Amino acid sequence: MHRVFLACLALLCLPLMALAQDQGPTTPQTSPAPLQALLQEHAPLVAKPSRNSVGTVLEALVASGLPQVPDFLNRWAEKDLWQRDADGLFFYAAKSGDAYALTDIDSGDAAGTAAGDALTNIKPNGGVRREIGAALVQFQLSDPDIKRRREALDAISRNPDPSQLGALAASIDGESDPALKTRKIRLANYLTARFGETPEARISAIEALAEDLSVEGRAVLNQILSTRFTAAKSLPEGSNIARVLTSGDGIDRDVAYAALVETKLAPPLVSAGDLRAALEANIVDGKVGGVPLGLLGTEEARARAYAALAAEGTVPQLVTDADIDAALDSHVFFDTYDEADPDITAAAKATLAKVQTRVGVGQTIDLTMDAISLASIYFLAAIGLAITFGVMGVINMAHGEFIMMGAYTGYVVQLFVPDYTLSLIVALPLAFAVTFAAGVAMERLVIRWLYHRPLETLLATFGISIALQQLAKNIFGTQARPLTSPAWLDGAWVLNDVVQISYIRIAIFVLALLFLGLLLFILKKTRLGLEVRAVTQNPRMASSMGINPDRINMLTFGLGSGIAGIAGVAIGLYAKVTSEMGADYIVQSFMTVVVGGVGNVWGTLAGATLIGFLQKGIEFFNPSNTLAAQTYMILFIILFIQFRPKGIVALKGRAAGD
User: Does the pTM of the predicted model rise above 0.85?
Assistant: First the structure.
């Protein structure tokens, strides 16, 4: 009986066990992933964002602290966000055949596929994307990718906002790149100066800007000191007034009255067109304001008719000059600071004055350095001409082409020597040798037959310059050729945000000093120099002492040409190397020689310095018109020569006599 009872009980339990197996194990309900859940709370704003409403979503996303938020913001701004129409869930999607492959926005895992007509692409407009970009900045400031961090700082610079200050300050200590850390500190100071929580913090940040000469720093101070023009019956109490203006003295009369009209403190002016339209609209029985139409041919009659209409209240009163004067006299006009705290504007004003003083000093130093650099270039270009012109009295119009030959020599050397430092070392003496030989050949073949015939010499050398230019075009073409400087000459020596000079110009200045010393040594300490000076001062006496003037002329012309070749290498490092490049310096070279004093090294240095400073000074006052600067410089030199025809350092001897 007992076994029979157990068997019956088992048979009764079988249906229940089968039912349990069919239902399967019980699983707990899972909630949506955190980012998806947050987006579902604001689904309408995410799907159809506007610039005014998107802030609510962005604040929620930033406050969530979810690590997937930065990637979501990027995808959203790049229009890579999709919403599934069936359930309203958001995904990233990519075209896959006829359908779209979905990616989960939380995990990044594949989430199946969907047809294109089952999805809606979220496309925020430009204003919304800018708001998203501003929110994204807070995450990018600490991004491992330095490019993202740099982009975040660029975004803050373009559109500073008080909400960025906290995130920016928090990212400073963890910044590993020294340059970016410095920039973060500077930007944090800018934001504090404009949006700091307390006046003390803002004033402290403003005073720190006295050491900042950058354009951005000055822009921050100018933004704090921004003003708006206002008109009122009297000066309002408690306003931070920048200055009080008087009509006719600091403010135009029409502008002042327009301000009164804008603030509804005075009636608007009636223009001639408005007057005519009012008269046409009020014609009754062939009259306007009691004046017959036939009598409205004069301005006085039209004014009388309009006054009659105004007396009836039909049209506004006509404003007379007396009315304008009375309105201006009974009101005050002033600029008020947009910043309400006078202590902050006072600190900004004092700091800006200090910065402007330092900027002025820096600009003077920068202009002086530029002028010295330009004078170095002119000295190198003219010293060879000064020697040949001073000793031989030859007007060599082909001197610029020797500069061009030196630059092309440097270019050819770089074709065979790829190391730019080594190629420069090789190019300098080789350019001297090539142009020295060309100068000697020119003197032997042409110049020696034309001594004491200046017009024929000028025409002959001018023809040679044209021939050399054409020869360069035939060999190298008309396209500018690169003469690349070594890597250690790249960049500039930066003292601050105002004063900086390129390393190439510094190198040219040093090269000019070396040549100045070398030429002085040759002329003062060597036999060749002694003979050159002797021929320069008294060629007949030098010849009687056993010196061969013909040989000295040849070597002197070759020396001057060789120096021009070295100048060409130096100039070609930062200027274009073309067949016409010599023409850009021949005029300045002759002006340098004539102004400084013919045939004198110190005179050439003085002339180059004068012309360099003069040109930079003119360009500073008229930077947009270089042609005008050249014209003014030539006029000045013409006047200078009238008062000192022998130049700054007058030369004695044959050249002076010539």
Answer: no
Please say whether the beta carbons of 498 and 366 come within 8 A: yes
Half-sphere exposure of 285 (CA within 13 A, CB side): 3
For residues 166 and 63, give the distance between their C-alpha atoms in angstroms, rounded to a whole number: 13
Helices 601-621 & 503-525 angle (0-180, nearest 10): 160
**What is the rounded distance in angstroms from the CA atom of residue 513 to the CA atom of residue 379?**
10
Pairwise CA distance, residues 200 & 557, whole Å: 72
- Please state, in angstroms and rounded to a whole number, the distance separating the CA atoms of residues 90 and 107: 13
Cβ atoms of residues 97 and 104 within 8 Å? no
Residues 6+ apart with CB under 8 A from 425: none
In this structure, the number of other CB atoms found within 10 A of the CB of residue 468 comes to 20
In angstroms, rounded to a whole number, what is the distance separating the alpha carbons of residues 51 and 47? 13
pLDDT digit string, tens, across residues 498-532: 788 888 888 888 888 888 888 888 878 888 888 87
Task: Tell me if residue 408 falls in helix, strand or coil.
Answer: helix
Query: How many whole angstroms separate alpha carbon 573 and alpha carbon 424?
Result: 10
For residues 423 and 413, what is the distance between their CA atoms, to the nearest angstrom? Answer: 6
Domain spanning 359-657: CATH 1.10.760: no
Rg (CA), the chain: 42
DSSP reduced 3-state for 461: helix
What is the CA 473 to chain-centroid distance, rounded? 35
Q: Give the chain's length.
A: 658
Nearest to 448 by CA among 103, 439, 293, 98: 439
Run of H or E including 221: helix 215-224
CA 585 – CA 459 distance, rounded (Å): 18
DSSP class of 267 = P
Half-sphere exposure of 446 (CA within 13 A, CB side): 21
Strand pairing category for 492-494 and 500-502: antiparallel
Q: Which residues of the chain have a pLDDT value below 70?
A: 1-32, 247-250, 390-391, 598-599, 623-628, 650-658
- β-strands 241-247, 250-251 pairing: parallel
Expressed in angstroms, the distance from the first to the final Cα of the chain is 153
Helix (H) or strand (E) holding 454: helix 454-476
Per-residue DSSP letter, 501? E
In degrees rounded to 5, what are phi and psi of residue 291? -100, 125
* Structure-block tokens of residue 142: 């600490």
Beta-carbon contacts of 66 under 8 Å, excluding residues fewer than 6 positions away, are 34, 35, 38
The phi, psi pair for 102, rounded to 5°, reads -95, 145
Contact criterion met (CB below 8 Å) for 281 and 305: no
Which residues face 103 on adjacent strands? 92, 110
Of 214, 211, 215, 240, nearest to 351 (Cα)? 211
The CA distance from 555 to 546, in Å, is 16
What does the pLDDT look like over 167-202, one tens digit per residue?
788 888 888 888 888 888 999 999 999 988 899 999
Phi, psi values for residue 325, rounded to 5°: -65, -40
- Per domain, the residue ranges of the chain are 34-129, 141-226, 228-337, 359-657
Q: How many Cβ atoms sit within 10 Å of the Cβ of residue 123?
A: 12
In single-letter form, the type of residue at position 523 comes to L
Q: How far is 274 from 289, CA to CA, in rounded Å?
A: 16
